[in-house]
Design goal:
alpha+beta; Rossmann fold; eight-stranded mixed beta sheet; four-stranded antiparallel beta sheet; globular; Tripeptidyl-peptidase_I; hydrolase
């Protein structure tokens, strides 16, 4: 071990001599605390291979916000003038200066030109290096980590350095400080005690088994029973959502996408049972399959249009843990927009379920973002995002999806990370991608999480160490990507117990609490400024900086909300269960936007695209929620209030008001 240290020190000194004398190195990224659940072991063997990826700084990225606001602000002359994909690629491609400076650095460090490859997108450089080369290049040390629960291995360093003159040309480099963190489906129906003691999706353990409550013979489509059993008809009554004629001619330019991450997978028989019970217009069509052509009057239930991303597929196996999220999302998304089609982006194979990330999905709909890091022999392991073709036995062997799928006009995702689990540079790069796709006219919706002001599993941060604790006290944990200012973050409401469907809703307080709070990474966007200033002035929270970022300068979330309690969902062969969570709220709100897009497209207008500035400028388009809170970390959390608040945002959708506005603007 001593010889390894000595060898690296000697090589560092030799490379320093080879560098120009004015090449001063600075820390580019540093991890502040030990990653939760990981045990650091020995230094990595110097001959092991690492797949190094450099995210190059993009041109014009400093003007990205102003470009997006110009086409998304209602009183702008450019409102609704969405960009072409080609214009986005050309505008934000890294400059030749950036490419040249980074190349010169790598060449001076001994990385041969033939080893350095550009991705098919212009934003990345990638090359394989030995651990020895990586440590010299980045002035760092790599260690092997092992997860204390799963035994999963990982390679990382605590910090890394780059030349000062190169730093402004690089967003981040992997593998370095980043740890692969499993994205979290936003539902958990356990008691608080089990949340603290069990394991969950996340870097600390295996997926939890959600406790779905069986429903005993629910009354079908009974609007008098919506406080006990939420069905599509209840949501239509709550928000004025229309029922479209089953034979209507749909606009081919409209599209609604739902993203699921393997091993989550819907069950076709469960969709059939749900639609037969709760879809006022049966979701059906005539199949073109030969067996059905013999009897053309035989209807079969619709399925979402499957777009497989990196080996994603449907496995029809009844499993509460693996069917719950996908069944919930698709049953309600499809029922609410019927007869419009729903696209399912199924992401990842069954092998790399611990690695598949939002970036893997984003790669598939924007080739200019894709790092194109195909795996090679002897590569140690994935870093933050899964590597495809999958180098692991039984994994997806096909090519990585880089821009192979079109982005739908609305995309709903019911998964999230703790903002604390990823580096600010990584989160910023991904957040900017949502903005770029917003320029295309796509609306991204993310659920805000189900643990109030706490992080996944109800955990919080120790203020002195910034490490996770048991959730009984400590600092609040924001949810990402909800804290990205370029997505629409969706919180959760519920019908008051025994109340009518026509009465005002309250913040969800049954089984889950609507996620909400303030980012520690992203500053307050301009469209939120007035709403947040008003809230801090009129309804100041009783917490100091030791609880949350109370600078009044950071992004607040959620933006809006929708019902998230007692959804009746068909599971395990068609049995009815209650499910709770912002994971139900996101596809519901997404369905509303999809129906508005349909109406706009039918009169020659474009999709609403990035909708946040419009909603904040015209909050009357939503039903304000003024009762409830989102407890966590041993506190009552924040409180709902008139106007925007960090519990339910601006409120729930009011389809008639929204439709009237968007048809005239």
């Amino acid at each position: 071990m001593y010889l390894s240290f000595l060898l690296v020190s000697i090589l560092w000194s030799l490379v320093t001599v080879a560098y120009p004398s004015d090449w001063k190195h600075v820390i580019h990224e540093r991890r502040q605390v030990k990653p939760e659940g990981w045990i650091r072991h020995s230094r990595m063997h110097l001959e092991r291979i690492l797949p190094m990826r450099i995210a190059l700084k993009q041109s014009e990225i400093h003007n990205l916000d102003s470009h997006l606001m110009r086409i998304s602000t209602p009183d702008s002359n450019d409102y609704g003038k969405h960009w072409s994909y080609e214009k986005i690629v050309d505008t934000f491609a890294p400059s030749q200066d950036t490419i040249r400076e980074v190349h010169e650095w790598l060449l001076a460090a001994g990385i041969a030109r033939g080893r350095i490859k550009k991705s098919r997108s212009p934003g990345w450089l990638h090359f394989n290096v030995t651990v020895e080369e990586a440590e010299i290049l980045l002035r760092t040390e790599y260690h092997l980590y092992e997860h204390e629960v799963t035994g999963q291995g990982h390679v990382a360093c605590d910090a890394y350095n780059v030349p000062r003159h190169v730093q402004s040309h690089i967003d981040f480099i992997t593998p370095t400080i980043h740890f692969d963190t499993k994205i979290v489906p936003r539902f958990d129906h356990r008691t608080r005690e089990r949340k603290r003691s069990g394991t969950g999706f996340g870097p600390w353990g295996k997926p939890w088994l959600p406790k779905a409550s069986p429903v005993a013979n629910p009354t079908l489509n009974n609007l008098q029973d919506c406080s006990n059993n939420v069905t599509p008809d209840c949501l239509r009554a709550l928000y004025g959502i229309p029922t479209l004629p089953p034979t209507m001619r749909t606009n081919p330019g409209n599209s609604f996408g739902v993203v699921e991450y393997t091993p989550q997978s819907y069950m076709g028989s469960d969709l059939d049972k749900f639609f037969s019970n709760y879809s006022k217009n049966p979701v059906e069509l005539y199949s073109s399959a030969p067996s059905v052509l013999e009897c053309p009057s035989t209807p079969v239930q619709k399925r979402p249009t499957l777009l497989s991303v990196d080996g994603g597929n449907i496995h029809n196996t009844p499993n509460l843990n693996q069917n719950t999220e996908s069944n919930l999302d698709l049953q309600y998304a499809m029922a609410l927009v019927n007869p419009l089609n729903v696209t399912l982006y199924q992401v990842g194979d069954l092998v790399q379920t611990e690695y598949t990330s939002f970036n893997n999905f984003l790669d598939s709909i924007d080739g200019s973002y894709c790092s194109d890091n195909d795996s090679t022999d002897n590569v140690t392991s994935p870093t933050v995002d899964a590597i495809y073709p999958d180098p692991l036995p039984g994994g997806y062997a096909g090519p990585r999806n880089c821009g192979g799928h079109a982005a739908t006009k609305v995309i709903s995702t019911s998964y999230s990370y703790n903002e604390h689990d990823l580096s600010p540079a990584y989160e910023t790069r991904q957040c900017n991608e949502y903005a770029k796709l917003g320029l295309l006219g796509t609306t991204f919706l993310y659920c805000s999480s189900d643990f109030g002001v706490a992080g996944s599993q109800g955990r919080c941060l120790d203020p002195s160490t910034s490490s996770y604790n048991d959730g009984l006290s400590g600092m609040f944990i924001p949810s990402f990507p909800s804290t990205c200012p370029y997505v629409l973050s969706i919180g959760a409401t519920q019908i008051k117990p025994n109340a009518s469907v026509t009465e005002p809703e309250i913040a969800c307080a049954t089984k889950i609490a609507s996620g909400g709070g303030f980012s520690n990474v992203f500053p307050m966007p301009s469209y939120q400024s007035q709403a947040l200033k008003s809230w801090f002035k009129n309804y100041p929270p009783p917490y100091e900086a030791g609880r949350f970022n109370n600078s009044q300068q950071m992004r607040g979330y959620p933006d809006v909300s929708a019902n998230g309690a007692k959804y009746v969902v068909a599971l395990l062969g068609g049995y009815n269960y209650h499910l709770y969570g912002t994971s139900a709220s996101a596809p519901t709100f997404g369905a509303v936007i999809t129906l508005i897009n349909e109406a706009r497209l039918n009169v020659g207008k474009g999709p609403v695209g990035f909708i946040n500035p419009t909603l904040y400028a015209h909050p009357y388009l939503l039903n304000d929620i003024t009762n409830g809170s989102n407890p966590g970390c041993g506190t009552a959390g924040f409180s709902s209030a008139p106007g925007w608040d960090p519990v339910t945002g601006l409120g729930t959708p009011n389809y008639p008001r929204m439709l009237q506005y968007f048809l005239t603007h």
